[in-house]
Every structure is written in structure tokens, then in C-alpha cells.
Amino acid sequence: MPALSTGSAGDTGLYELLVALPAQLQPHMTSQEDLTFLWETFGEKSLHSLVKIHEKLHYYEKQNPVPIVQGAAALADDLAEELQNKPLNSEVRELLKLLSKPNVKALLSVHDTVAQKNYDPVLPPMPDDIDDEEDSVKIIRLVKNKEPLGATIKRDEQTGAITVARIMRGGAADRSGLIHVGDELREVNGIPVEDKRPEEVIQILAQSQGAITFKIIPSIKEETPSKEGKIFIKALFNYDPNEDKAIPCKEAGLAFRKGDILQIMSQDDATWWQAKHEGDSNPRAGLIPSKHFQERRLALRRPELLIQPLKVSNRKSSGFRRSFRLSRKDKKTNKSMYECKKSDQYDTADVPTYEEVMPYRRQTDEKYRLVVLVGPVGVGLNELKRKLLISDTQHYGVTVPHTTRARRSQESDGVEYIFISKHLFETDIQNNKFIEYGEYKNNYYGTSIDSVRSVLAKNKVCLLDVQPHTVKHLRTLEFKPYVIFIKPPSIERLRATRKNAKIISSRDDQTAAKPFTEEDFQEMIKSAQIMESQYGHLFDKTIVNDNLTVAFSELKTTFDKLETETHWVPVSWLHS
């Protein structure tokens, strides 16, 4: 709690404020129960005592008192010795009895410690057998508690010496400032380590308790001061150091899950960065594979990631956009293709490792973030989107697609579709104006970038459902998309909950609705697994649509938080 001044007569003390608070808040109480609770809480004697102590301490802190003596305990001993030689009347006996009590002696000892500002632990004496000729040797003692020392060691391949490989930021070794990278380790607690393997030295350290004595030859190299900044990254993969054969020290590793936010503490090592979980109160960092190292490992492990097409112009795909989804029968006789806006971030998104992020909260005068919904055919994505629109038509909006087919009598231009000529549609394709598009029965259908802008310009949340490969092209400063993956439940739940439902294969042909088949369920599960495997690192939220009502409630809560809470977004969105 912030300290309030009590040093002058004009100041109101914290204690007085505390006592007066219930009466000041009484007009705002809605029930007698709340008022009773307030009086009981602020009327606690223990709370009053603590506040009074707080005020006294703050008062003396402002006065900056200086101790009259720094050896009260010794003075008390001298006084007791002198009193022993005096006539022992009742007052002298009482004083001697008081001075001999353990609690009084402890109080005087604490007083002397505080007065002398001597808070460091008492270390054992230095060894007597230090070689005077070894003027470059340092003898270092660290007091070990339950935490690791926070340093890794290695054997120098040329000299065979055991040297300090890295110092973990925030660890005991780092806080001491006495051990540095490159220092050569000669002894640990008097045990020579020159002929030992690093694993044996680590075992000696693990078994050591209390103060640990190191005999070290300092490194000749001067360490360059690290430029530690506030760098945060979002992990795009799961990592367990215990399963990593390459990590130099498993105990020093930091485990994390996909989606975790990590604070980078050091990037001095090109292979192993030092990081800690964002918000973790423990100052000690752990080792994680660097971005370059992890990308290289993933590339070697999954070479197919590197041979994905980097351009999707005129690329054929197995499915049509959900709004114009082709049935399985149609897929055999019709071809569909997509065109996505090109993005400089395409290549790096294909090998998911880390993404530098920073906190972002939408301001009231800003446009809403684009919400992208992704999911396999039949998962219920359209139903969820429809429920959102109905819940608040003034707040949510959807894009109006373009088409080259002829307008039907009951349709209005700009409502069901925006009707344009085939020549103009193809011109817009060449100018990358479509997020995605396809061809169905010799007519083009597509969603334009301008249609998204149109919804956002009306100060509405734009709900957009697209193929997952399109997401990476929408991840720009302009749209700041929040991507929600609608995932199917288990196939057993699909059979139980979808047995009376129907699947619509095409928005443009509502009569094509038909009951779900076992093949539909199998394809939905498989499609979801592929989406999650290839594009899961781009998803901000996953909602399992087991029950439509429950899934909608979760979706609505997610939207509310998106508009009011702080979220982590790519740095590039805010620093473009």
C-alpha cells in the first residue's frame, strides 16, 4: 500500500483515513449486509495495529534516524558486569534479570546488525594453502540455496580445461557478479576438476550444500555488456528440454507450450537463447533453442515445409471457399482455385518457431480487429457466425461476395452479391484485389479486400471465414486479425450430435443440403487435423463445437475480451 505522510500536522494519516472510510462509503452501499461487512473489515484491531506500525515506520524513514550506538549488545554486557560489583538491591536484580533474558539479547543483536547494516551471510574463512605464485587465481565463495547456481560448463577442445560456457541471467552466479563466461574452473570445494568430465563436475555441484568454494582462473577476454531489452516472443511450438538431445544442460532448459509468451533475457549465444516466462517472478532465465537453430532443425526434420509453393497465383486447391463449397460429387467435375494477396511474411510463417510480440489493447477510436473464422466443412462455423450476427446486427458484419453470374430476379446488387463482369473480375484478380476466389459452373465467386474494409469502416466487427492458408496473408497492420479455429469434437460425438443435421455443399445452391454421412465425419476430422498441424501456429483461439450453445457462449466471451483486454500481437503490426 502506498505510504501516506504523517510528518506534519497538516497531513492526514493513513490510520485516520481508514477509520473514516466506512462512514464516507455508507451512502454508496446498496445493502445493510455490505455495510456491515465494510465496518467489520475496517474495524479489525489487527488491521489498525498494522497501519499504525506502517505509519510509525514511514515517519522514522522520513526522519532518517541514525543509531546512537552500533554495539548495544556489548554495551549491555559491560553494564551487567559492572552491576555485578554493585550492591544488589531489588532494582539491580531486576535489571540483571532483564539483560540476561534470551529475547532481550536477541533484540539487542538485531539492533546492532541493523545499525551496522551488516546483512551479508557469514562465510567460512579463506583457505590457507593458496599458491602465492598463482596471482591470476580467484577464490570465490557462493552460498547455495535451493536454486541452481545458474551457470553451464564445457570442456575446451584444445586445452581440455573446464570452462564456464554461459551465465544464466538472474541466477545466483549472475547476481554475484563474480563468475564470468570463459573463466577456467580448477577446483570445487577443494576437489581438482582438471581431469574430470563436465558431467562429473555438475554432480559435485549438485551434491554440495551451503557455501561452495571455487578456484578459478579468470578469462582474459573482456565481456561486452549485454544490451538487455524488453523483448517478448510468442512460442509457435511445444518444447521440452528433457527430450532435446542437443541442449548443453537439460537442467538449465526452459519448457514451454505453443502460445506461451516468453521474455528474452539474452541472445548472446547464436544457438541457445536465455528466456523466462512472461510475468514469472523468478528472475532466473532458462535455455531455449534460438530461432535460427530451431528453424534449421525443423527444416532438416520436415523438408516438405520448404517445398511448399511460395506463390499461389493460379494454384489449384481441393476445396472451395466455405460460402461456395463444392460437394464431393462436384469436385470430380469442377476445378477450384484461389488467389491470395502476397505477403512478405509468407516464408517465415512456413517454419513456425517464434514470433516477436508486444502487448496491444484496442483504443476506442480505432477500428475493430478483423475476426477470421477457420474450420472444416460441416463443423458448424456458419451457424455460429449466423448466431453472432443475429445477437447484435449493429455490432457485427460480414462481407458481401463478388460474382460474375447473372443477377436473379429476387436478388439485389450489393446485398446477396456484388455483381460484376467477368472482364472486371479477372482484372481485379490480376491486381490482387481478392483475398480468395474460385470458379463454379463457369462463374467466378470471390471475397475482395475492399469488402472487408467496407465492414470495418462502418465501425463493425468483420466476421470473415476463409481457407486457413489465406490467414497468413491477412496478418497485416491494417487488419490485425484475430484467428479462431472452430474444431470438431470426437467422431463419436459427431455421430451422436449430427445424426439429424444436414450439410450444405454450396451457398449458391441451397437445395444441395443432404444428411451427414460417415464419410463426411471422417473427412471433417481429417481436415481439422491437417489444418491444426499446418496452420495451428496462426490460430489465436480454438473452440471445440461439441454443443452449439456452449460453443457460441465461448465465442461471445472471446469477442468481449478481444475488445476490452490486452492481447499480444506481432511487433510488425505496431511498428510498421
Question: What does this protein look like?
Answer:
The chain has 576 residues and is α+β, with helices and mostly antiparallel strands. The chain has 19 helices and 25 strands. Helix 4 (72-84) runs antiparallel to helix 5 (90-100). The model is unreliable at 1-11 and 304-349 (pLDDT under 50).
Query: What's the count of strands?
Result: 25
Q: State the separation between the terminal residues, measured CA to CA.
A: 40 Å
Instruction: Output mean pLDDT.
Output: 79
| Rg from Cα | 35 Å
* Strand fraction: 15-25%
Q: Which oligomerization state do the chains in this entry correspond to?
A: single chain
Count of runs of 4 or more consecutive helical residues = 19
Low-pLDDT residue spans: 1-11, 304-349
Major beta-sheet overview? 6 strands, antiparallel
Give the fraction of residues assigned to helices.
Answer: 25-40%
Structural class: alpha+beta
Pfam family, one: PDZ
InterPro entries: GK/Ca_channel_bsu, Guanylate_kin-like_dom, Guanylate_kinase_CS, L27_C, L27_dom, L27_dom_sf, MAGUK, MPP7_SH3
Domain L27: 10-64, 65-122
Membrane topology: Peripheral membrane protein
Search tags:
576 residues; membrane; alpha+beta; cell junction; MPP7_SH3; six-stranded antiparallel β-sheet
Q: Quick gist of this model?
A:
Residues 228-298 form the SH3 domain. The chain contains 19 helices and 25 strands.
Secondary structure: elements and pairs:
Layout: H1 14-25, H2 32-42, H3 45-63, H4 72-84, H5 90-100, H6 102-116, E1 138-144, E2 151-155, E3 162-167, H7 172-176, E4 184-188, E5 191-192, H8 198-207, E6 210-217, E7 231-235, E8 261-266, E9 272-277, E10 286-289, H9 291-301, E11 315-317, H10 328-333, E12 336-338, H11 346-349, E13 354-360, E14 371-374, H12 381-391, E15 396-398, E16 402-403, E17 418-419, H13 422-430, E18 434-440, E19 443-448, H14 449-457, E20 461-465, H15 471-474, E21 482-487, H16 491-497, E22 502-503, E23 514-515, H17 518-535, E24 541-544, H18 548-564, E25 567-570, H19 571-574
Parallel strand pairs: 14-20, 14-21, 15-20, 16-17, 21-24
Antiparallel strand pairs: 1-6, 2-3, 3-4, 4-5, 4-6, 7-8, 7-13, 8-9, 9-10, 11-12, 13-25, 16-19, 18-19, 22-23
Helix pairs in contact: 1-2, 4-5, 12-18
